[in-house]
Request: fold
Amino acid sequence: MWHNQGVPGPPSQPRSARRPPPPLDAAALERLALRYVERFATSRGKLAQYLARKIRERGWDGAPADPHAVAQRMAEAGYVDDRSFAEQKGAALARRGYGARRVAETLRAAGLDEDDRAPVVDEARAAALDSALRLARRKRIGPFAVARPDPKERERHLAALLRAGHDMATARRVVNSAPGEVPAPD
Reply:
């Protein structure tokens, strides 16, 4: 127990003085991909972006690498499922009160194809009022407010719903609701 006896421990080197990790090769890239998919739910696009970033950071040793091909192999092996990822991500965003526009943008940024995004975005559009009300409850907006807001506060509430990805009609409907009067779905 040298640290309790006042004896200095082994000298630690600053991070910049340490030897940089070796450049990646095909086997190391596969290991990185496997480690990533075991830790995180991801899409092929996000996995390919991660692998490309690692290649830029560490360099490459050998024949040119194709991160998209590695991501495709992971999908074929069943480790990556874009449709399932889209459904899970869309459901999570809807539970937090985000609208269809925000769901669509998040899925697009995750590198999902239109075929995988479309059903989830359609579902988000169908549940627009429910997700807007979830956000309104969390932020105490519209029917969940204590009192009717003044015009400036009303604008802030409207802006919060629009930033969350809700369309103007749904946002106005929620903000214009009197406290305690939850709007019924159409």
In short: The chain has a mean pLDDT of 91. The longest helix spans residues 44-58. The CA atoms of residues 160 and 171 lie 9 Å apart.
